[in-house]
Amino acid sequence: MSDKYDVVVIGAGPAGYVAAIKAAQLGLSTACVEKWLDQKGGVRLGGTCLNTGCIPSKALLDSSHKFAEIRDHLAAHGISVKTPQIDVPAMIARKDRIVDQLTGGIASLFKHNGVTAISGTGKVIAGTKVEVTDGDGQVRVLEAGDIILAAGSVPVQIPPAPVDNEFIIDSTGALALSEVPARLGVIGAGVIGLELGSVWGRLGADVVVLEALDEFLPMMDQQIAKEAGKIFKKQGLDIRLGTRVTSAAVNEGKVEVVYSSADGEHTEHFDKLIVAVGRRPRSEELFSSDSGLTLDERGCIFVNDFCETEAPRVYAIGDVVRGPMLAHKGSEEGVMVAERIAGRQAQMNYDCIPSVIYTHPEIAAVGRTEQELKADGVEYKSGVFPFAASGRALAANDTDGLVKVLAHAETDRILGCHIVGPSAADLVQQVVIAMEFGASAEDLGMIVFGHPTLSEAVREAALAVDGHAIHIANRKRRK
Ligand code: FAD
Ligand code: NAD
Known about the structure:
Elements: E1 4-10, H1 14-25, E2 30-34, H2 47-52, H3 54-73, H4 88-113, E3 115-119, E4 121-125, E5 129-133, E6 139-149, E7 153-155, E8 168-169, H5 171-174, E9 183-187, H6 191-202, E10 206-210, H7 222-235, E11 238-240, E12 244-251, E13 254-261, E14 264-270, E15 272-275, E16 279-281, E17 314-316, H8 327-341, E18 355-357, E19 362-367, H9 370-375, E20 380-386, H10 391-395, E21 402-408, E22 414-421, H11 424-436, H12 441-445, H13 456-464
Parallel strand pairs: 1-2, 1-6, 2-3, 6-17, 8-15, 9-10, 9-15, 10-11
Antiparallel strand pairs: 4-5, 5-6, 7-16, 12-13, 13-14, 18-19, 19-22, 20-21, 21-22
Helix pairs in contact: 1-4, 1-8, 3-4, 3-6
Nicotinamide-adenine-dinucleotide is lined by residues 158, 187-193, 195, 210-213, 245, 276-279, 324-326, 355-358.
């Protein structure tokens, strides 16, 4: 096997595998080095996203949503069922089958596109070379025309709550529980805390979420965050803001958590404790000191807008570099970098990356929040449409939440869209497309939307920007 490639990618997560496939499609000989092993010792593709992130968490969110629907929401439709039971091992096995299918799918795509998967740990050494150490400690050196680093991220650990993978677990452990914990503690009311707290809460766990900050979801538009907070409270998620965990110790099969808040010190006992306080880039031991690469203050590999590192012909993409830790952000960077290596003019619009929290209802956003626009002194107008006024949401008995569209006060160009509500992930994508085409709120309001759809709420919010909504009483009226 040749050890010379046009492109060597390190990491086969959604950033790396997409970059590798795209590079191969563009006619470049491409290898992708991955250290994750499957149960038989073979190379396991797909990274965090497919194995322990996006896909398995969504599989469990969908399973638990169906369970909660049957238990709590069918009576309203006139449907009665006997008390539903959850078979946790069967639910986890379904999730594992989906993961296997998708990771196997990446292997097929590699084969189809002619990408060589190489099992081992990759490290960049000087002169666009990659040193690969396999599971047996054998070392080989690959010569690369260009290198793409896509090593991803790992969960942040905190000293008061060391993960033991049995009682105190991270997100990976929380995707593989064998039974529903009666009492579940979660440290961190971020994306993972809310999604995995929802999974086990829907299945019957009594969930307490301990969040250090005083504000709930501070990066989200605050109107949406407040609305979401109310909905989660109604669902029984006990989110305690402004809490500082000082210790978590396992005692007689329970985790004893001590935390302080404005009203003093508290002790709680949980069957499991999930630590979900963020992720950090996996940038250590990825390159030699003479490779020319540098890290920023957060430990991310330093890159410019085109994902070029400070070492010539070495690029870095995905969670290992600045920006939101989202699968689609890394994948798009992968496409951009592969195209630039192939000599094309490619760039990425970092202002138009959607983000979603897959609770029910979902929370989705693109662009600027109202508080960001205020802070930057941008003159804006906003339009809001509640799902309670949507015929389709009412028909589905799913009326919590709202759509909010923000547009520039003078140009009317859409600056952001924030949604908490049913199918928010898919709804926000419509505004992402509109924003990519530089649409105004008026443009969005002039488009015909099928009826009855949840999408109509997006159009109505766009119309509401100038007081033209049809199905709510407008606050401001225009001639
Ligand atoms: P990763 O997916 O982490 O892949 C990096 C790969 O590199 C890994 O396979 C690793 O083994 C390999 N590697 C590392 N170092 C080396 C080395 N030296 N040599 C060889 N191989 C190496 N994002 C979303 O957009 N939507 C979601 O719904 C979503 N849900 C999530 C749920 C959970 C529970 C978690 C934990 C994350 C979720 N994310 C989600 C985030 C998403 O998983 C990450 O943003 C994404 O996986 C990052 O892609 P990546 O390719 O940069 O890194
Ligand atoms: P996060 O940054 O979303 O949330 C972490 C939360 O923990 C924050 O609210 C933070 O204030 C809090 N926190 C930090 N230290 C704490 C402490 N000592 N005590 C109590 N609270 C503390 O991080 P996450 O939920 O771990 O997710 C990690 C990354 O994975 C995120 O960046 C996210 O982008 C990605 N992810 C995305 C999705 C999705 O797109 N649906 C799903 C899961 C994860």
